[in-house]
Design the sequence.
């Protein structure tokens, strides 16, 4: 006798899994495979020459370095913003809450131009930083600022729901047990929101690595200094060096994949510790 | 005393959620704060724990004033309804949390943890995560965690709320046992009277931010002082009766005073009688009753609930003159509730529709005044309109009492509190009602709203006790602050002013001692009616309780108040001076 099938909201596993595979293959895997294939048609020597070229290496350093830095800045300030929005009632809270999503919606070129205007030597903020010897526009700092801007919503939006779930009772309980504020934060709040923080960090980082539009305006694009890898890829394309572009793209792909996988595994480990039996 | 609360008040946006609460809780006592949701009991518990700052009053634990000390340093253990366990920590880490904070050595921590796990019967579950435990087990861990640092008091906020009935009972037993074993002073907050009865050494019943009554469970059940406690602690039938020298009269049916524990009173007046459902006896005829006859009735509803049978009985009109005190808003309110044991059911089985005689074994008479409201007006239509005045309906609903409408100048004694509209002739009506035997007259202006503040003043010393009793009764049912306004003539020489102050404080301590009522005091100088009118005009939504012992000449004596049409609700309380009555 056929066992009774578990009813489900969506039609059977076969159909949904088929759709998942199709969708992933068509939209994600196939283009990536094309990239790999294109790269594979190069010789080892050619490949290494392109990817280890000092200009390329300089761009990796800036792209991944600035992205890591920007994601880290977002980790801290995104958390603080989320905390403020969740924990306090103040006039204009709803407006600020809505503003958080703006970097999502704004065309990245617009944010890039806006940032450049503000941070240029004669810009609103730039003119005050100039005497202090701090140059933002057309330096790696500018790149980081742009990447921070576009990554911010990811952290805030991932942490917000997690913070909402940290019950006040937990803090109250810890307080009656004699714990100070810092101790409560370190031992109770942080462990609870850590998975969400990591998610936000990962998303912000991934977004920053792939960012192009906003950075090219503020970075000045000096080879070896302020040139990010995506830009280098576009330059190669404009030179009709498709293989070179594909090779650089492949390198980005591998580094990003390894980093994201690491973070995801870390997170899975953390989550297993948190809810052991999935109750 | 382990825990002493002195006039603790907490306001949210101006409205008091905990209103002037004073309690002394003894060493090792298990004290239960009982009340419906929103009564302020949890806020009070949080205030004791130090998680909520109080606006007024003092809290001390074991003689140490902790009012301004943070929760961290208060040395209390707190257990929450939703357990509030740290989900990323094992049971062991949860329990040792307070010990780690105190930098206790690992070995000592482990020993203490073992001891605690044994206490709550969870040995061997040290390494589990909270998510791997059942609700009951989680709450046991929470109790162990709260006790780890050997706190001076244990506070439990609805600890059984999230558990099902069977586990609830089991955990209840564990907590009682742990509490006895450790001899720790414990305060538990609950809305479940059964739980309160099962656990408490003493119960404090809260409603609308006020602590209404404190007592041992048996005392509170048998002799509640307020309607609220009478009906909140178990089922109760409230009936209007008249207290006379000979006993209690329900209409023309008398009940032996011996059945009713009631203070002797020379004065005949309307009272509210509490009859518990299990104190009622049913028989086919009046002659068949072993107990005192109360009324005749018809069975409306019979429900079998296992050990007990629950009946609802409609009192027959005409045949019985007993009246239910509760306003008959719904059909249910007009029915008498009866519970009978299996034994009683076997002796006399009843079916719906059956006519029978109702007897009563025991009656408790509430000592509180304001037994019922009667709206008086010149025509029946006006009286009916007045009887649905929003403030009056609000008061009657909260006090679980009835409002009737009556046309002025008709015959018949005035019973309970009379209510009139604030017309230009209000004074004349007050004087007429007082002459007819009314003891309380409530004057209602149109659009008056439930009060935020109750101003209390007696113009004659003879009316002091009654005024306080009425004020206490009112304040127990509305979420308002009581303020006693003392007024001295402007001409008072400086030397006598301290005396005025003392009179004020005496009034406060009398209110506290006699009625458990906390009130603030204010001293003003000037002409009585003028000062009262000025005080009433100072803030919106106030009501004045004015005690007097002269029933005539009000218009001239209180010209500033009654001279023009009244703009504020005023409750006139009249008690003739001794010897003149």
Sequence:
């Amino acid at each position: 006798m056929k066992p009774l099938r578990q009813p489900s909201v969506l039609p059977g596993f076969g159909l949904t899994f088929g759709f998942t595979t199709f969708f992933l293959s068509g939209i994600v895997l196939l283009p990536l495979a094309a990239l790999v294939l294109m790269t594979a048609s190069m010789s080892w020597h050619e490949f290494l020459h392109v990817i280890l070229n000092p200009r390329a290496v300089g761009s990796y350093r800036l792209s991944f370095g600035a992205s890591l830095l920007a994601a880290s800045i977002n980790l801290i300030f995104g958390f603080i913003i989320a905390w403020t929005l969740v924990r306090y009632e103040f006039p204009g809270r709803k407006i600020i809450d809505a503003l958080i999503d703006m970097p999502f919606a704004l065309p990245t070129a617009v944010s890039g131009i806006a940032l450049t205007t503000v941070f240029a030597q004669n810009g609103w903020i730039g003119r005050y930083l100039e005497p202090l010897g701090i140059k933002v526009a057309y330096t790696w700092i500018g790149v980081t600022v742009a990447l921070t801007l576009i990554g911010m919503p990811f952290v805030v939006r991932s942490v917000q729901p997690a913070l909402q779930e940290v019950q006040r009772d937990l803090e109250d309980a810890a307080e009656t047990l004699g714990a100070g504020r810092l101790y409560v934060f370190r031992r109770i709040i942080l462990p609870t929101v850590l998975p969400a923080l990591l998610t936000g960090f990962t998303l912000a980082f991934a977004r920053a690595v792939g960012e192009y539009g906003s950075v090219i305006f503020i970075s000045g694009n000096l080879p070896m200094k302020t040139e990010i890898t995506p830009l280098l890829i576009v330059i190669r394309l404009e030179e009709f060096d498709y293989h070179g572009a594909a090779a650089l793209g492949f390198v980005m792909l591998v580094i990003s994949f390894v980093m994201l996988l690491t973070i995801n595994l870390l997170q899975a480990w953390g989550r297993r510790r948190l809810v052991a039996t999935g109750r | 005393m382990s825990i002493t609360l002195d006039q603790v008040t907490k306001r949210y946006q101006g409205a008091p959620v905990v209103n002037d609460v004073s309690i002394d809780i003894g060493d090792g006592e298990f004290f239960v704060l009982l009340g419906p949701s929103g009564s302020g009991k949890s806020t009070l518990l949080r205030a004791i724990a130090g998680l909520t700052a109080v606006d007024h009053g003092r809290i001390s634990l074991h003689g140490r004033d902790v009012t301004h000390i943070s929760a961290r340093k208060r040395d209390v253990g707190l257990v929450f309804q939703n357990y509030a366990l740290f989900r990323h920590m094992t049971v062991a880490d949860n329990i040792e949390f307070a010990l780690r904070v105190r930098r206790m050595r690992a070995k000592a921590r482990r020993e203490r943890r073992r001891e605690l796990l044994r206490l709550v019967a969870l040995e061997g579950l040290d390494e589990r995560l909270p998510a791997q435990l059942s609700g009951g087990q989680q709450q046991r861990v929470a109790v162990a965690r709260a006790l780890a640092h050997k706190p001076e008091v244990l506070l439990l906020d609805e600890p059984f709320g999230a558990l099902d009935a069977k586990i609830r009972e089991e955990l209840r037993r564990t907590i009682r046992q742990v509490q006895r074993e450790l001899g720790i002073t414990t305060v538990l907050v609950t809305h479940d009277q059964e739980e309160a009865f099962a656990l408490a050494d003493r119960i404090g019943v809260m409603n609308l931010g006020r602590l209404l009554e404190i007592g041992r469970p048996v005392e509170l059940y048998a002799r509640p002082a307020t309607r609220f406690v009478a009906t909140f602690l178990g089922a109760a039938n409230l009936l209007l009766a008249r207290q006379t020298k000979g006993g209690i009269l329900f209409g023309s049916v008398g009940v032996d005073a011996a059945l009713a524990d009631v203070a002797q009173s020379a004065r005949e007046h309307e009272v509210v009688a509490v009859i518990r459902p299990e104190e009622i006896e049913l028989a086919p005829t009046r002659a068949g009753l072993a107990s005192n006859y109360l009324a005749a009735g018809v069975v409306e509803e019979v429900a079998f609930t296992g050990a007990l049978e629950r009946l609802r009985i409609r009192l027959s009109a005409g045949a019985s003159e007993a009246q239910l005190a509760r306003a008959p808003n719904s059909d249910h309110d007009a029915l008498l509730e009866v519970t009978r044991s299996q034994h009683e059911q076997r002796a006399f089985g009843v079916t719906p529709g059956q006519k029978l005689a109702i007897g009563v074994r025991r009656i408790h008479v509430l000592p509180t005044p304001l037994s019922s409201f009667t709206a008086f007006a010149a025509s029946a239509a006006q009286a009916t309109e007045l009887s649905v005045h929003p403030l009056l309906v609000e008061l009657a609903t909260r006090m679980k009492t009835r409002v009737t409408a009556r046309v002025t100048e008709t015959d018949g004694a005035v019973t309970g509190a009379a209510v009139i509209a604030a017309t230009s002739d209000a004074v004349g009506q007050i004087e007429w009602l007082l002459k007819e035997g009314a003891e309380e007259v409530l004057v209602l202006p149109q659009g008056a709203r439930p009060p935020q503040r109750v101003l209390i003043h007696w113009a004659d010393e003879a009316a002091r006790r009654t005024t306080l009793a009425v004020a206490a009764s009112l304040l127990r049912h509305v979420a308002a602050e009581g303020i006693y306004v003392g007024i001295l003539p402007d001409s008072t020489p400086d030397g006598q002013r301290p005396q005025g102050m003392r009179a004020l404080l005496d009034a406060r301590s009398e209110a506290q001692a006699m009625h458990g009522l906390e009130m603030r005091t204010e001293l003003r100088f000037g002409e009585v009616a003028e000062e009262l009118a000025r005080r009433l005009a100072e803030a919106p939504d106030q009501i004045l309780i004015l005690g007097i012992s002269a029933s005539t000449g009000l218009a001239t004596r209180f010209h500033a108040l009654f001279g023009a049409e009244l703009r504020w609700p005023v409750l006139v309380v009249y008690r003739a001076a001794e010897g003149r009555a």
